[in-house]
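#data-curation
PF: Archiving a pair of folding outputs for the training set. Convention for this channel: one message per protein, sequence first, structure tokens after, nothing in between. First:
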Amino acid sequence: MLVQRKGPPFCLVRPMETVVAIRADTGSVAKRWLIGGGIWVVLTALVFLLLNPILAAFIAIVTATAVVVLALAANWEDHSTFEQREAARAVKRKEKWDRNKDVRERDRARWEAHQAQQARKAEQ
């Protein structure tokens, strides 16, 4: 599926670029949290009704941890690639290089003047 993207979540070199985006899960993060939390609440209530409270508390804590880990890991692969980040950094470096062109020329002129002065002192 082709998708037009502008800016984040991927670091693109150009402001508008066609990107191939394949997503297994199309739901939002909030929906995942609500579904996971709802299932956890129902299971916890059933466990507390059917089992010993100490055992039920243990099961509730373990399942709550599992729900949180699964919800946080759901978008684990949704990040820019190394190449995309490096391309963005290259653009920033190029812009900075172009921005500092006058400063480099001024420094080069000062250095050449200094070298000429050193050469004159050496000749004397």
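PF: Second:
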Amino acid sequence: MDDLSLIAFASAVLLLAGAVKGFIGLGMPTVALALLTLQLDARSAVTLILIPMLLSNIWQFWRGPDMIGCAKKHWRYAAILTLCVAGTVWFSQSAPDRVLRAVLGVFVLVFCFFSWRDMVPPIPSHRVRLFEGISAVVAGLVGGFTAAWAPPLAMYLTGLRLERDAFVQALGFLISAGSVSILVMFITVGHSSSPDLAISAFLLVPTLLGFSAGERLRHRSNSEQFKGFFLGAFSLLGANLLLGTLLG
């Protein structure tokens, strides 16, 4: 795929991913990766979403109600996530693309299942540290492979029963921390080049345009109906990624 075709394809994907996030609040990275890997290898797909993912989540964290309180509450999770992402990227440098696609497929399915069923139980107060550590390690391992850390991260925050604004701000803080780690490590090990990162920076524009459009549409449409259609379609896409690696 030549550069112009790549930019056009990735722009369309990030426009859609941003719109979906603005419309129903689902994770932009998971949506973008599931679509980008239809044409690109997994590491190239991750590289293209790095800058939009990092900057959009820093903005999300900054817009929240209590930046200092959020950071104090979730710094342990952020530290574990950052270290696990870095370690996973380092030790998985030679992992074949089909393994990364399989991991992505599994977590797209997990993401869709728990988003659809809305079945995460509350975390008992005396078990918060335990589940914090487990979730951060799992999110770091998966994030280091594919940046698809939404399922364990969102499940943990849902279990805390945070207010919506605090939930959104915590997502922004933690994904920003993980994004910095994966960006630094991808550059360190040579997965990301300067031209790739320049394209990634450009893709922030369609991402934010899509997000803005999605927010406006949310107030005019049936978001639950669209959510069901979207999750059904992406369940099929996740299954296709997984079966393609197992049978191919």
